[in-house]
Every structure is written in C-alpha cells, then in structure tokens.
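step: validate -> pass
step: tokenize input -> pass
step: predict -> running
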Amino acid sequence: MVSDRALNPRGLGAIAAAAGLIAAGGLTVWALRYGFYGTIVFGVLSAIWLTTLLWWSASEPRDTAAVATGERNEEHEDERVMLRTLLDQAPGALLAIEGTRVRALNRAARLLFATDDLVLPAPAPLLSGDAARLRHDGRSWRIDRVAVQGAAPGMLIALIDVEAQEHAAEARATRDLLRVLGHEVMNAMAPIASLAETALAVLAVPERRDRLLPEILGTLARRADGLRRFTEAYRQVARLPEPTLAPVSVADLFADLVRLFDGQWHGEARLTIAEVGSLIVSLDRSQMVQAMLALLHNGVEATTVTDLPPMVRLSATVSTDRLTFHVTDDGPGIDPAHRASIFLPFFTTKADGNGIGLAAARQIAQSHGGDVTLRAALPTTFDLSVPL
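step: predict -> pass
step: emit ->
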C-alpha cells in the first residue's frame, strides 16, 4: 500500500525530471539524423531539461521544509490532544483567566459551570487576585492560582473542593478520637468495676470488712476522680467556642505570656523571648494565650526529664501572609514512634498527663485558620501559624 507521504511534490518532481531526461535523450537521437536542425533541436531540448532540473533542485529545500513543518504541526496536534485528555482526567476544575474572560479547561470545570467554554457570568472571586475562596452552587472551593507569562499573560486557576477535604479530615479525627476515648474510658472503668466487686465480697466477711473496706473505697474514690478529670479535659476540647478576633500586639501578647509563665513556674523554668517589633495581628487574645501556654508548658515538662534547668525559647517570624510562633525546648526530643500521635486528644506519655495541651493548641490555631506542627524533633520545635 502506498502512503500519502509517497506522493509529495518532491517525489513528483524527481519522477518528472527523470521522464524529461529520457524523453529528451530519445528526441535527440532522432534529431541527430537531420544534421543542422538536429543540433538545434538537441540544444533546445538540453536547455529545457537543464531548466527543469535546476527548478526542481531549487525547490527541493523549500518542499523539504514544508514537509518538516507539516510533520511538526502533526506532532504538536498530537501533543495538544494528549494534553486535553490529561486535563479532562483531572478531578479538580481547571480554568484559564484571559483578561475578564474565564474559560473552562477540563471536564470538571465544564460540569461545574455548565458550559462548553466560557464561564458566563464570570464569578467575581475568580477575577480577583486576592480572593482565596469561591462559593458556587452551594459548595465552597479553594482558589489556587498560577501566573502564566507570554505574549498574552494570564492566569491558570485550580479549584479545590474544600468541603470534601474537611469532611475527610473530620472523619479521620472522629475515628482517632473514638479510639482514644474508648481506650481511656476502658482503662478507667476496668479497675473501678473490679474494686466494686472486691468491696462487695469484703462486706460479706465481717472480720475483713473493717480492715480492707477503707482501702478499697479510697482507691475507688481516686479512680473515680481520675475519670472526672478526664471528662473535664474532654469538655475543654469539645466545647471550645469560636474565636472572637480583634487586633492584638504581638509584643503585648509575649509580655502576657512572660508574666503568666513566671507566675506558674516561679523561677524553676526559664523562658527566653525574641524581639518581635510592633507587629499587630487579628486574634482571639485569650484563646491564643491558652494555646501558647499549652505549648510552653509542654516544653517545660519535656526538659524536666534532663539534669539541666528547664529552658524554653519563644520567637515569631512573619512571611507574606502568615505569622508563625516558634516554641523550642532543650529536652531529649520526641520518640519517632510517638510523633504521629502527639496531637491526638488524650494521648500522653507522662504519668500525670492528660493529653489535652497539644490537641487544644492545634484546635485553637485551626479555628483561627492556622495550624500547629512539629517542625523539628531535636531540639523539639513546635510552630503555631495564623494568617495575617
């Protein structure tokens, strides 16, 4: 089977030139028989053939370039088809911003805005360079932007389904909480039930009742009090109110923390503060003090297991859109086996700990739109970040 590329202008020119050469040769043999007139015919035919050959030779590079250009165009078209296929497989909506026009780039975007190309009317948050959220069709979407430079600068936008992420995070948090709650409640209830059965048995033996019953009741009271304290700790996390935001001086916030820290530890632990300048940020002051004290308290408790005097360092850094507090201690670090669990409510490795401090600090930070993360395990550094 002959391909389409076999019949291009270059191939046809070569065939024509060869045929012209053969025909010119045959006519020349015939013309040579006629003397002077044959010489004239030979010259004319030779000129025609040479002209044809030169024309074909001159046109060959241009034809080759045209073929190459066509092949490149075909390759580019294949790449565009592949790119469109990949974009359509993306689960998130992708859009292109061209001036005041918004175009849907993939299937998810076309389905979301019920369009084949232009999004009409264009949602104002997409055209704004500052908006971080889009509320559309009863759902909330996070807007991620990438600037595109070129002859016609524009913007690519990816819409992230925030509610789906939040629901998945809530489901994971609920599973973790129920697992820890079940573990803690069973740990508290099992000895109480056992001691109650022992007390009933002792009551039936008068000679043992007066001696053992006070001890059993005392242990029961301590275990019940432990369960009460656990319940109170749970309420601290479960009933945290929404933050009431107001402008707060970070320097004043640090000064409050120093006074509260010194009042709690009475010089047994040392807190060093880095200079923060005159930064003002919108916070719920009381909640943020509670979160920061929890991190500082955690740092002091971590350093008490060493022979060195407990020392904790507090500093703050500012990026383009976030303020981050850093709490660093000189303790032995966090066991790698525990790093995935340290923020779970009620998880603790301390004998008298309740596992509330880090979980409450993270919840307060997240209610402000930020987070608490473990940045370094040795020396242990926790970062609490909030948006500016």
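step: describe -> The radius of gyration is 41 Å.
step: cleanup -> pass
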